[in-house]
Amino acid sequence: MAEIRALLIDDDGRIAELLKTFLGQNGVAVEHRSDGHSGLRLLENASFDVVLLDVMMPGIDGLEVCRRIRSKGGRVPIIMLTARGDEADRVVGLELGADDYLAKPFSPRELLARIRALLRRAQPGQDGERLVVAGIAFDIASRRVLSEGREVDITGLEYDLLLALAKRAGRVVPRDALLSLAGRDDVIVGERTVDVHISHLRAKLGDDPKSPKLIKTVRGVGYVLAKERE
Predict the structure, then answer these.
(1) 3-class DSSP state for residue 224?
(2) What one-character-per-residue DSSP string does 79-94 give?
(3) What's this model's pTM, rounded to 2 decimal places?
(4) What average pLDDT does the chain have?
(5) Of residues 223 and 122, which shows the higher confidence score?
(6) Which of these, 98, 94, 4, lies nearest to 47 by C-alpha position?
(7) Rounded (to 5) percent helix, strand, coil in the chain
(8) Nearest-CA neighbor of 196 among 209, 208, 180?
């Protein structure tokens, strides 16, 4: 199996050594940086398959690191490592473009499973399948989205949510079922997370937030993606 390259940004040296040893024995080569600034510098000069990002760090915290990665167009999958029970950090991290989160303390085996699952979702398929709904074209193989011919820069979670809606275009998808239908049962942070990502998708697709015509809200139920643009 090809080796996965992971960048761990975490100020806890003990966790870093543990993960470097365990993940290294399981096909994941870990490069470690103990603060956000040095992690960002390394990302500018090297390529990684996944970033493992601690939230609580001196200097700039993990949330700010995530924001900076995404603001520069970085698409590398990001797994946030958060304090146990700190739902606010998980919500904000996902809003900023993180793809997954794991609460500390965690099992290295669970982290390995999350890495593999995340990279399977991000990995190009073999069939080159395409889906086009309401002027939105999905290239399933590359996980790219084009809206009326223009490529849309969306996060991994946003892609999964939009594709779930597109596969059910014209039908109402309950808000509390959307994450599951998107294959993201691992993301459990409440309805607000779904609402925020739908808002982001509307903005990126040029859908009027005050009177959306593309992704419509069915009050008290969920969302429906139009079959055709109005």
Answers:
(1) strand
(2) EEEEETT-HHHHHHHH
(3) 0.63
(4) 86
(5) 223
(6) 4
(7) 40, 25, 40
(8) 209
